[in-house]
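[Discussion] Sanity-checking designs against the backbone

I'm trying to build intuition for which residues belong where. Below is a structure token string of 169 positions. I'd appreciate it if someone posts a full sequence so I can compare it with mine line by line.
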């Protein structure tokens, strides 16, 4: 395979590397309130465009077929929401005995418990020729599950804070 063919095949990864290099050279372009207005373009336009494009390219049969792969969905959800956070937790136990800043460890723990962003999962799955319908379903479902769990934890934490403040008063 020639260099030009390889570059055409790996266009997405090359694009990511190029964007990272440009961001490193000129970070002011992508900051909040900057010329690209990421608070609008990424939050609303880019994510909407990704889902619109994915929706146009999916056939109804593909989506219903993807929904029937229960074992796949169970594997993905367990891996994403149980195995990966557990592996990160074990890794953090090892890192906690090192002089690494504790806030960096807390940040890694937080990121390790989050599902992958829906847009990234869909784009990367499509780029490698994977099951895009299953990726859309698992990303959306995983995000739904973690949001429900997080809201429950936050509301529980708020309740605990109110109870503790009542005890202190």
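Best answer:
Here's mine. Compare freely.
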């Amino acid at each position: 395979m020639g260099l030009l063919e390889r570059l055409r095949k790996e266009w997405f990864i090359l694009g990511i590397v190029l964007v990272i290099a440009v961001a490193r050279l000129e970070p002011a372009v992508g900051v909040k309130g900057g010329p690209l207005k990421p608070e609008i373009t990424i939050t609303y336009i880019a994510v909407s465009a990704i889902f619109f494009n994915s929706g146009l390219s999916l056939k109804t049969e593909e989506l219903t077929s993807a929904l029937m792969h229960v074992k796949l969905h169970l594997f993905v959800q367990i891996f994403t929401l149980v195995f990966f956070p557990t592996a990160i937790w074990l890794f953090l136990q090892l890192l906690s005995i090192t002089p690494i800043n504790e806030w960096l460890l807390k940040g890694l723990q937080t990121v390790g418990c989050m599902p992958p962003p829906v847009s990234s999962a869909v784009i990367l799955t499509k780029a490698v020729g994977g099951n895009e319908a299953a990726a859309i379903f698992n990303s959306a479902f995983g995000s739904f599950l973690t949001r429900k769990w997080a809201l429950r934890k936050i509301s529980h934490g708020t309740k605990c804070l109110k109870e503790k403040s009542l005890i202190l008063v």
